[in-house]
Design brief:
Strand content: 5-15%
Radius of gyration: 31 Å
Oligomer: single chain
């Protein structure tokens, strides 16, 4: 690969006479004599330069290679994971795609689909399943087939560009849906008397619509920052056959590059994370108070069913009432949503901080650190979308019951009607 303008050559050996012997190459003389000849191929010049680099042991050191960002033993650990990321992400995506299909199937049942919060969870599963299903062919080709190839065709670069924008759009939609979910729950618990009038089906539909409409608008800068680039590479054989290599990279100059990082890091990542952190802390406090109230209702005295209250010298007996089923269901739902929000924060906060630092510290931090942690952040984001099914099953009795009924209905063969009367009974 030819050196960029931001690189320098290091000569490991060779004297002054050896350096001047570079100009004794007959091919260079021929190129200089026929420099105006249009029939002269640029690949011949590039092949000659590549031969010189190999002959005189010229090492190309790029500018960011001299940076100390994200160096040390920890970098080796992350690189070790990156070597197996393709297989790990493929397993997560296969499980997550199936799990989110189950989520959609369960949350669209009649007894669950009516609740607005379940509609948000359903569309969250839809966004996650699109990301995972698209990531499967990308993972197979990028990490299993592409490393064995010498060529990087133009079609691969086009698909890579599509993959970047597609996953970013649907993952941003997933972020906005999670944010809507947290705000929805906050309103329902904080203002229970106004909840039915504020959390309506129409506003839920509007929140879902905006969650899928805003990502294409927020991601406009990235459409212009990331483009397909072209380089010339030589194979490792003695013939040094030149071939073009296509890859996707960002244009580091201009206002759009900085704007893209700030929009992605602040408005897409950090701002939702800050809001979710505040709401999650408030929900955890609500759960703590509910747990304290539960312990108080159980009581620690010999007569837990009643309590003695003394007022102005008079003794009254107050009966302790048990918590209703609706309150218990509300607490279980809140616990489940808190778990979903905490997992989301665990995966999105680091990525937002890295993006913010990349915008502040420049391209070398992005090349040395953001690219380094890219595979790990992808795996965490995929795992976050795949594990929601396990959370729903473990923390929601209604979800488990509906899922069990769905599986039994699919696995159990429907008996055929033997008479008209039996057929009518079946329909009733």
């Amino acid at each position: 690969m030819l050196a960029d303008d931001d690189s320098h050559h290091k000569y490991n050996s060779g004297t002054l006479d050896d350096t001047f012997s570079l100009f004794d190459d007959k091919r260079l003389v021929s190129i200089l004599k026929h420099g105006n000849n249009q029939s002269l191929k640029i690949s011949e010049l590039l092949r000659t330069l590549e031969d010189w680099r190999n002959r005189y042991n010229i090492t190309v050191i790029k500018e960011c290679d001299r940076s100390d960002y994200c160096s040390g033993e920890f970098r080796d650990v992350i690189l070790g994971y990156n070597a197996v990321h393709g297989y790990v992400s493929l397993l997560i995506c296969l499980f997550g795609s199936l799990a989110n299909i189950f989520n959609v199937a369960v949350l669209t049942r009649r007894d669950l689909a009516a609740a607005p919060i379940n509609r948000l969870l359903k569309w969250l599963a839809v966004a996650d399943v699109f990301v995972m299903m698209e990531y499967v062919p990308f993972s197979i080709y990028r990490y299993m087939l592409l490393p064995r190839q010498e060529e990087r065709p133009y079609a691969w670069a086009v698909y890579m560009l599509f993959h970047m924008h597609f996953t970013q759009l649907f993952h941003t939609a997933s972020i906005l849906l999670t944010l809507s979910l947290a705000i929805w729950r906050y309103i329902a618990i904080k203002y229970p008397s106004y909840g039915p009038s504020l959390c309506t089906d129409r506003r839920c539909s509007l929140a879902i619509f905006l969650s899928f409409l805003l990502p294409p608008i927020l991601c406009i800068p990235s459409y212009f920052v990331f483009t397909i680039h072209e380089e010339v590479s030589f194979d490792k054989t003695a013939s040094k056959v030149a071939s073009k290599v296509y890859y996707v990279d960002s244009n580091y100059e201009g206002v759009l590059y900085q704007l893209n990082f700030w929009v992605h890091a602040v408005f897409i990542k950090l701002l939702p994370c800050v809001i979710l952190t505040i709401i999650s802390a408030w929900l955890i406090r609500v759960l703590y108070r509910a747990n304290s109230r539960k312990k108080m209702l159980k009581g620690y005295n010999a007569c837990p069913a009643s309590s003695v209250v003394v007022t102005n010298g008079n003794v009254f007996t107050r009966k302790l009432t048990k918590r209703s089923k609706a309150e218990k269901r509300t607490d279980r739902t809140t616990k489940m949503l808190v778990a979903v929000l905490l997992l989301f924060l665990l995966t999105e906060f680091p990525q937002g901080i890295l993006g913010l630092m990349s915008g502040a510290l420049g391209r070398c931090f992005f090349k040395r650190c953001y690219d380094l942690f890219g595979e790990l952040m992808d795996a965490l984001a995929l795992l976050n979308g795949a594990i929601n099914f396990i959370l729903y099953c473990s923390m929601s009795r209604q979800f488990r019951t509906t899922f069990g009924q769905l599986v039994r209905n699919r696995c159990t063969a429907t008996p055929r009607a033997s008479s008209h009367t039996e057929l009518q009974t079946t329909y009733v």
